[in-house]
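agent: user wants the structure for site-specific DNA-methyltransferase (adenine-specific) from Prauserella alba. delegating to structure tool.
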Amino acid sequence: MRTGEPMAAARKVRGRVPEGTQQHRDWLNLVDITGPFISIPVLRTAWPTLDALDKRTRTALRQHHANWQADPATSQPAWLHYVLAGLLGWADELHWAEDVDLAPLAVAVPEHDTSIVPSFVLTEPGGAAKPDSIRLLGLVTPPGVHPTGRQPGDAWAASATDRLARLCRTHDVPLGLTTDGRWWTLVWAQHDGATGTATFDAIGWADTAERDVVRAFTSLLSRHRFFGVPADETLPSLLEASKDSQEEITESLGVQAREAVELLVAAIGRADTVQRERGEPGITDIGADTVYRGSVSVLMRIVFLLFAEERGMLPSDNELYATAYSAGRLCADLEAQALESSEDDLEHSHAAWHRLLALFEAVYWGVDHQRLWMYPHDGSLFDTTSHPWLPANIDDRTILHVLRAVQYVETGTGKNKERRKLSFRELDVEQIGYTYEGLLAYDAFRADEVYLGLTGKSGAEHEAPLSELEQYAAESADVAELAERIANAYRKTGIGTARGLARKLAPPSPTEREEQRQKLLAATRGDAALSDRLLPFANLIRRDLRGLPMVILPGELFVTESVARQDTGTHYTPRDLAERVVRDALEPLVYRVGPIQTADESRWVPKTADELLELKVADIAMGSGAFLVAAARYLGQRLVEAWARDGDDRAMAAKISRALGDVEEDRVVVEARRQVIEHCLYGVDINPTAVEIAKVSLWLVSMDGDKPFTFLDDRLKTGDSLLGVTSIEQVRSMHLDPAAGRDLHSDLFAWTASTQARIEKAADTRRRIAELPQLGSPLDWLDDKRKLDREAADDTADLRIAADTLVGALLARAPEGPRGMNRASVEAAHLANQVMRDGETKPARDQADTWLRADQGNTGFPRRPLHWPLVFVDVFDEGGFDAVVGNQPYLGGQKLTSAQGHAYREYLIHAIGNGVRGSADLVAYFVLRAHSLLKPTGQTGLIATNTLAQGDTREVGLDQVVAAGTTIRRATKSMQWPTKSVALECCIIATSCEPLGDDADSRADGVAVPAITSSLDPESRAIGAPQRLTSNRGISFIGSYVLGLGFTMEPGRVQELIAQNPVNKDVLFPYLNGQDVNSRPDCSGSRWVINFHDWSEDRAREYPECYDQVLREVKPDRDKNKRKVRRERWWQYAERAPDLVEAIAGLERVVVLARVSKTVMPVMVPTGQVISEAVVVFASEDAAMLALLSSGPHYWWAKSRGSTLETRIRYTPSDVFETFPLPELTDELRELGERLDTYRRDVMLARNAGLTKTYNLVFDPDCRDEDIEELRRIHREIDAATIRAYCWEDRVEAVGGLDHGFHPVGRETRYTIGPAAQREILDSLLELNHERAAQEAETQPGRKSRPKRNAKHHARDTLL
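agent: tool returned. relaying tokens verbatim.
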């Protein structure tokens, strides 16, 4: 990210900039940078000042530069040799292709019938030109051919930079340098990350004015930087240290965009107040949510325009445009006005707002004037009729701060904090899309009293009524108590600790008090009485972008977190990740013979341009459209290559200028993307604002200044991707199972006879949209497209009503199960017949809407079914989509019901999940839906939480996908989301409905494997899901779910209660939770808990002190609980675990382990205590059971069969223990279990360390302490004894033994058995599970073998 020239106002705000920092800003401003590069804090640390050029070097540079400029073509070799060997000092370490054979470093690109050969390499001193000694690879392009531009006359559209990055990654050399003599592009090719480039223009290197650029070039690439500094100061290390820069900018821009919308909404609210005070109507009849969406649209327009202006898509170089319209210039103009007078004066003018409104109109309608011509671009974003209520009196001060918020970002902290001017040329479209997408999590509300915007964690701040804070103050005896109340009330917002709040609430000095009062008077428009009420809380009120306290007056508007906000995967998806997922899905589709048929790339046969444009690709939860943008780029590039193969003059053009050096601005590439977008891409999202954001993302990546925006109304739709029919047969039969529908409705409806003809007509109409030629004005042409889109919709309108009634009825009846679904089908069919027979749609429409509202959760959006074959008629008329790509929304199984409602959850189970039950994540249903929309040759590329391959979510989702015949061809089982701001483990899959050829390969975590299972593991000899074993029932349990901190207390309080009333000891027990098990040296509970068992309330009252505490501290929260039994029996635990209590009755001790843990290590604990739901309890006091559950075989079974929370294993007894075939619990295991329990307890007490800290040492290769070595020895013996108990010594020995050592587990290390032993043992355990299950089925003929879920045999019919 390069920084721009700071403005005078910015200098005034920041004060004097350190010399070194300014020097770096200056040279960065003269270098073209794309992707990640070195951040200023890292530059400042490595180079407080740039390396100097001595007089002799400057003289030589001028002489060689002059010789080169005299004849650039002929003098290119001599100039390149001087720069690399002389200026940079590479000398003996520089090897040219004409001097050394570099052919062995060539990388074949068979699909384009070419190869990449380096022109030169930089090696370690004395090293040969081999990958292990190469520090940098170089490519030379012909004179005048920009390194980032397309190569003249080459059918492969990749630039020299792209080719060099591929070469670097192949040889694992992170740095490359490509040049034509003038342009020098430094390439950073991260192995698993985005490519970063910095392009230096050598044309002015002989000038004094650009000496800092030359100094920067030599500082970065000199021989000294490669070989004369410590490893952590070399260029690759410095680039790695700066890796978070782009993400930090993105996150900062997202926060500031939200603050800008917040400011704009408040300004609209103030403008409304002013209008009403004048007796004008104002906007009180406009909903706050509408105002919010309008404000978001305004900000989207501004960011879009800033991007378009910098990219040359708008006439920024036109004088009239620059002075009267430009969004990029407006901020500077306003800052100049503020300097001339003051910011306060800007509050009394509105010229900037009117300038923006005029610019919006100009972009939509165009301008035809003798001094300025602008093409009419149309586009719903700029539709001037979409927000007619926008007031005319938004003040210039607001606009100044809105523009500052999106043109400058603040990054870093402390001394490294810096304010950067954004260059939109350097921002990826995905970054802008994510900035927009973050705004979807908020909404606007109209204040019914005075509200204050409180301080807090960025993005999580709370808006609180003043009356609420005053009530807290009235109930508090002093400042400390008030601080405690406020800290507890708003603890989730990050407002601070009670101690910190007490300091803020302390009375200020008289001077500070007066300053606060003046600020509050400005915020309240001079209301002295209100300002005095606010003064006690002045330091808790956050500042808006103007620097004023955020005070919202009654009737005004404010922005706060939406009630519908759920964490469903809305994270910044870096461009390289989206492109990786898309490439995996689309690569098989761009070849007639390709990766589905063979892994031999030399045999791949690319498709023609016409064939490429026939592809149909969808993202069914598109958000900001990052994956559709990646698809547009990927297919656009393939289309350019296809045109080149066909001899298209445009694609083969040799003229490469600097303007075309950026592929994003290459007119041929842009045209290819426009073609792809208009013919190939489709998207759906439940949020209408997200649909608009996705449109903007696609416009940004395909904008042509001389053409209207690509028409997307027929491509991107609003609706619930999971709620709707997927085949026209479902509508004809009025049932999701057409065969069942035909049986149910014995006399099929007469109206179905004409359905096919109407579908074909609508499909033909939609196809005409993309093919419609532009004959008249562009706006008329786009209107004609809209008419065709409406015509196609009208053709299927009554069918959509029929589908709505069907889906609505099924949703409402879903809780009744399959019979209810059949009743729903009959009811819906009756209404549909009325619509088709009488043409009367209102009764059906009203009833469908009523059904669709059934048991609606807090999603915030009306339920809007998306009927795929009726909306995308042309796609499904040809069999469905060729590919589905995207980041699938996730929502944990328990949260799904509360967010969407019980009826919706049941609908998903029956309508999409084939009746397979389980606490599955929402992502499982999206994966099922994605596969149901594909052609028989369809592909997917999907990213999701790693729970997709675990537990119930896997059983509902991927198990059924694989059972239906789909192949998982690429998989990354678990990886950390590649941004530091997100603590999330994700997985990536690419699937194929088309069977793989014998020569094709599958890759799991980048390694070629025979096949990939639904667990995203390489397939081994034992296949299939494990069965739950009857013999394992009644042993493992989840502890009690207390639900209410008011039940718990510290040990000291227990003694007080017993002292007050000795009978209290009957209901007071130690309380053991997962953290206690893992962190306390004796694994004892740190707190105690009140337990009224299953008693009546009257009996609980017999313990008044304990009863009163629960009444006071538990009942208020229980009264809000959605489950009736928890509200009515508030004095009891939410889940009392009676089966556990019965199972351990009479036992003195039990085996337990924390339910979520990295170690998965059990311990023995005494009974007589309440054990929480965060602990798994095994009803056994046998030390042999402790040894078995401590063994490597049990750990690896738990890892493969459990799920995860972040990187920790979530132990689910039903999935792990109940499927784990137990061996005979031998005396040897029993003796080792006792030894482990005794010795480990002594170690933990001696070290004052809990299980986690102790086993961190066990798993640390550097720890060789004697007591830790003994623990490892005990575990080795336990593993060996476990194998003997199974009688598997021979089979383990056949794979090389147990091979104990420090082996990788994800990103961490564990002392455990080796990989070969792991695979053999897991296969053996699965085979033994199947054998035991079969035996149990035979011995219990009345009981069916339970495969944990039902209805999987219907998977193929339902999915495909």
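agent: one observation worth passing along. DSSP finds 56 helices and 42 strands in the chain.
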